[in-house]
Write a structure and sequence with these properties.
The protein has helices at 6-35, 50-62, 70-101, 107-165, 184-190, 205-210, 215-223, 233-242, 247-275, 277-297, 315-325, 327-344, 347-374, 381-405. By secondary structure, the protein is mainly α. Helix 2 (50-62) packs antiparallel against helix 3. InterPro entries: Ferroportin-1, MFS_trans_sf.
């Protein structure tokens, strides 16, 4: 029988509640906004403060004909507040605490476990939410989320408090820096993007991020956020508004994407142990590129909204399946970049680097949202797909630059 250390149990349990809030609420809110006709607001639907957004959406749902969209805008503002703290919470657990609590040889396993929890809930949440909406309606779902968010808050706070108080290593910071890759110091000195160590001085947040030996890999990963190929709410809204695919079908495909992501995580863990993170990440790069190209090809397939107002062909379904399958490669790359940053970034700079990285990722997501506001019609979605493919390919090129300097 497998026994887990107490710290792992507390860490896994707290992170599970965090992911459950994220995955289930995001999918549910997408459907509510779409049903209320607020398609453009879908671009920011992830940013919710769950409890108060439920109150606003409940009022709007009971009076959908109201000419005053103030309740929707209040929900969007609450969304931004929630997303800020949710991202900070995830970052602290998966980018900082997990490194502090574990030896470098255990990081790959812990990263895979935490990502596995996230993807498992990504599988279950759309199916459960889709079934709940179909069986009990929107209002019942809103009440469930309001109660569930308060229960989750209580349990999660307790678990994190117990974990923090029981491990003194979380109370202090030092300059410890894991260097697991061979020749990492030589690669850092040869990196043309970096300032020589003798010339480095304490500077701003960007300089701290830029001077890291993992800059190219991290920057490439940030470029992936300027894409509609991540099966986010833009893709869900596109499929719902431009095709006759049911909510349940979209939820199933989204769950399949999460399964592909979990397979990518498991594959990475096996490959990294045997061949190293560079080789494992490179396999993910190839898989992601193949299916991203297939997603681009759907623009010219029968049923594409570019040619037909309402899709009756396979174009949108193939697009969803392509971006769902590409998550296998995406998570291989994500795990490789995350582990490289955990190993190379000093503990004293870890929150700064990961915090700026998260901000950069969100910044790159803004242009696609601006495109949706400027070109809201489903027939314009081809523009987003093409621009996404360019950014995905460019991000992969930056990862390639990183691998050239870090040969294992």
């Amino acid at each position: 029988m497998i026994s887990l250390p107490k710290k792992d149990v507390l860490l896994y349990a707290a992170y599970t509640f965090t992911c459950l809030e994220d995955r289930a609420w995001s999918f549910f809110a997408t459907i509510v906004f779409e049903l209320l006709g607020a398609i453009i607001l879908v671009v920011v639907l992830n940013n919710f403060s769950i409890l108060f957004a439920v109150l606003s959406l409940t009022s709007k749902y009971h009076n959908p004909s109201s000419d005053h969209p103030i309740l929707l805008y209040i929900s969007v503002v609450l969304c931004a507040i929630n997303r800020l703290f949710l991202n900070a919470e995830k970052s602290i657990i998966t980018r900082d605490w997990v490194v502090t609590l574990n030896h470098k040889n255990a990081l790959a396993r812990q990263n895979a476990m935490l990502t596995g929890f996230d993807q498992l809930l990504n599988i279950l949440a759309p199916v459960i939410v889709g079934t709940m909406i179909t069986s009990h309606g929107i209002f019942c779902g809103l009440i469930c989320f309001a109660i569930g968010s308060m229960i989750s808050l209580t349990l999660k706070s307790t678990l994190l408090f117990l974990l923090y108080t029981s491990h003194s290593s979380l109370h202090n910071r030092n300059n410890k820096n894991y260097k697991a890759l061979e020749h990492s110091m030589e690669c850092e000195e040869e990196e043309p993007f970096l300032i020589p160590k003798t010339a480095r001085k304490p500077s701003g947040v960007f300089h701290t991020y830029w001077k890291q030996s993992t800059f190219c890999a991290a920057f490439g990963m940030a470029l992936f956020y300027k894409t509609v190929m991540g099966f986010d709410n833009l893709a869900v809204g596109y499929a719902k508004g431009a095709s006759d695919l049911s909510i349940f079908t979209i939820g199933i495909v989204k769950s399949y994407g999460a399964i592909a992501g979990m397979a990518g995580v498991a594959f990475y863990a096996l490959m990294e142990k045997r061949y190293g993170l560079v080789q494992a990440g490179s396999v993910g790069l190839v898989v992601q590129q193949v299916f991203a190209f297939l997603a681009v090809c759907t623009i010219w397939m029968p049923g594409s909204p570019v040619w037909e107002p309402i899709s009756k062909g396979p174009s949108i379904f193939i697009f969803l399946m392509s971006i769902a399958t590409s998550r296998f490669g995406l998570w291989c790359l994500d795990m490789a970049v995350t582990r490289a940053m955990q190993l190379h970034v000093p503990e004293s700079e870890r929150n700064t680097v990961f915090g700026f990285h998260m901000a950069l990722c969100q910044t790159f997501s803004v242009p696609k949202e601006m495109l949706v506001i400027a070109f809201p019609e489903p027939s314009h979605f081809a523009l987003y797909i093409l621009s996404s493919y360019i950014c995905v390919t460019l991000g992969q090129y930056f990862f390639y630059l990183y691998t050239k300097k870090h040969v294992e």
